[in-house]
Amino acid sequence: MRFGRSAVPGGVSSRRRAQSAWRTRLVAATVTAAALAVPTASLAVPSIASAAPAFGPMHRGIPGSFEELMVPSSMGPIKVQVQWAKNGGSSAVYMLDGMRARDDRNAWANADEGDAPGIFANDDVNVIMPVGGQSSFYADWVSPSNTNGQKYTYKWETFLTRELPDFLSGYGVSRNNTAIAGLSMGGSAALMMAAYHRDMFKQATSMSGYLNLSAPGMREAIRLAMLDAGRFNVDSMAAPWSPAWLRMDPFVFAPQLKGLPMYISSGNGIPGPYDGVGSAADVFNTGNAIALEALASVNTRAFQARLGQINVPAQFDFTATGTHKWRYWHDELVKARPQMLSALGLA
User: Fold this and answer.
1) How far apart are CA 341 and CA 267, in angstroms?
2) In the annotation, is 174 catalytic?
3) What is the pLDDT of residues 163-198, one digit of tens each?
4) Is residue 67 among the annotated active site residues?
């Protein structure tokens, strides 16, 4: 098998405009069978940096173009969608998906959902969109999920903070001038990555995040959500209120965010311009989105109070309407963009 980039048919819109700068190239790589084998909970994480010479020289695509890379990891090959910086710069923004992250694409790459490539189309920043990680909270789990037959252990923090930046450095992408953003489970994960990897992330954005994971009822709410999204077992992620669980809770690690530029937003669950009621399906989906956003709003308000108590500043945006839907997160990323670029020295 080969690691590197693969071409994708079609294009990603720049604010709904098609891009035509796609290229078909594949970087050959020699990897061992052990690196490709399905990992177990005890498998050691391979050193991508030490394996880098096997990949040979890497060259990113045309500035501003969109490509897909296959990146080796302890979980097996991970697809990563990338829009290269407009002028070939090295800075990067990492975009994390939500609970129902798909295995074929990151919803931030879709013009009809997050459209991060469109939002950053005119900026000299690489947009990095990892694919997969359903129900993972982008954490390093303690074991494979035993409710859905998962064959390997999620190690997403390791991937995002070690394996992926090591791999991307071969394309000239900075390891330590990056911002990170996410929605829903990706929102709390973005803050977690930034809190524990301050040398890497210069800014963090959370949209409709669950930022008080240890609040009464939250673990069971997450349990139900994970079972609904892929039949994952929350106990395989971390034992109840264990050090691993508390490490993931923004309410707990909040002091470690001091001095970090943050943009944190939430709707209030009241239907707005992106909520349709034209069919029974619309009514059902909007009902779910109302409940999820109301919970995110409560969590985000609590987190705002927590930061206030410990004198950690952040930019908050609570919208007058808004449910748990992609077009609202698109709009919030537009608002967060200036702070992200400023933290990276691009504005």
Assistant:
1) 23
2) no
3) 999 999 999 999 999 999 999 999 999 999 999 999
4) no
